[in-house]
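Re: How this chain folds, sequence and tokenised backbone to follow

Filed under: protein folding, tokenised backbone structure, sequence and structure records.

Contents: The amino acid chain and a row of whole-number tokens, matched residue for residue.

Body of memo: The sequence and its backbone structure tokens, given next.
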Amino acid sequence: MALSVPGYSPSFKKPPETLRLRRKRCRSHAAAASRHPEPGPRRAALAAGLHLRPFPAGAGTGRGPPARRNPFARLDNRPLAATEAPDGPPRREHEAAGLVLDSNQENDLLWDEFPERTTTTELSKGSAGSFSEMDVPSSESAKLPVDWSIKTRLLFTSSQPFAWADHLKAHEEAQGLVQHCRATEGTLPQRIQDPRLSTELRCAFQQSLVYWLHPSLAWLPLFPRIGADRRMTGKTSPWSNDDALQHILMSDWSVSFTSLYNLLKTKLCPYFYICTYQFTVLFRAAGFAGSDVITALISPTTRGLREAMKNEGIDFSLPLIKETAHKKKRPGTSLGHGEEQAISDEDEEETFSWLKEMGVQDKIKKPDILSIKLRKEKHEVQMDHKPESVVLVKGINTLTLLNFLINCKSLVATSGPQAGLPPTLLSPVAFRGATMQMLKARSVNVKTQAPSGYKDQFSLEITGPIMPHSLHSVLMLLKSSQSGSFSAGLYTHEPTAVFNISPPVDKVLDKETVHKELANCGLHPKTLEQLSQIPLLGKSSLQLVEMNDYIYNWRS
């Protein structure tokens, strides 16, 4: 029996001991509740699939505060899920009530914003050219959109081998070169039973790898030219400090350039590229991209180059800026610096014109001419070296552009590894002073892991300046050789991606007339039909292509 001590209480405990007992009691109650959940009206309603409103904030439920709202949840203007009623509660109410969508449902909600697009598979980083299960926006069609960018590398993968592309025989190589020079139209069946025994396939493959180049210097990589200083460092360049030699090189280059333009003008050449150390020019014959005259696209440009073109009397336009300048900026949209300036300049001119009509222009303090000029120059410089700086030249102005480029001193670098080296001319057909070149191709067979073990994965890699006609030709060949099933990763020379913009079209051209006039331009009829489409890719380019059962899926 405890002694009776004044002030002593047998129920007294130390404060730390009291807190420990309280924590232990809470844990035991929670465990009991999980083992024997009490039926309640709210739990029964959730089990029945009814939508419930969240517990009111601060309600004494004994279950803690309501769940924090997911910051990545769908905004109110997002489309509703197929399983969510139009008049149902918002997403945050479901989350507060414990009804959270799984990750697959969330992905479905995200891609509901692209109803006009189908889905394809994305090239995985873990395997060469294989496709993963990630859904990406793309399009499905029997034809691909035209892509005017220059590719630096193509990587094809297939479940069938590419052995037919290796070790061409001497007569197959020779026949392929002759077919290219004579623009022979080869026709292959939809499916080739044994590609290794198909001489027509191997000759056509050799034909699709040919391109023409000027100048040709075996020890120097002449494409790409933008950002190529590091690859050219240490290479021999005897012309860099020899003015006489530089003059000879530029004289030969001018002859080749003029020859190409004359072929283009007479529709014996479909297009060609000029690759300088600062920008790239795409010349296209009349009939391409919906234009009935010769067109030239230059990208990227600078304010200095544009001013020099103006001083030479070259009439040109900025398609991306002009297109945006005539549109009012809508809420929720963002424009580039150059685009915003084009709109503000137009609005300012309209404002002063209205004040002049009212007769009060003298009473309004107008910004001085110098301030306006400085502001315009600032925004023009901010647009430099960006896709929005692309310049479009049409018709007779392309001839003036030719003379301008021949005499333009900034066309050739004055210092660095590219000093004194003329720009690179790339063409699908022969021209004066050109050298025939071949894209490099090699096939690789690897083992990839599969659920049942290992399986063979076959790939074909093509490198070099891959122009639009070569891309389309190779795709047509693989369509037959791989039985209409293959995947491709396309690597773009990014400064040329903007060539896929759709320039303003004055009138609709008749396709039959265009194909008839361009019949001798050196392209296969199907390739000509492909390239004569109106560009749709905008400032992007094809990156991933997959063919299944002779149907294309692509991603840009």
Summary: The two ends are 89 Å apart (CA to CA).
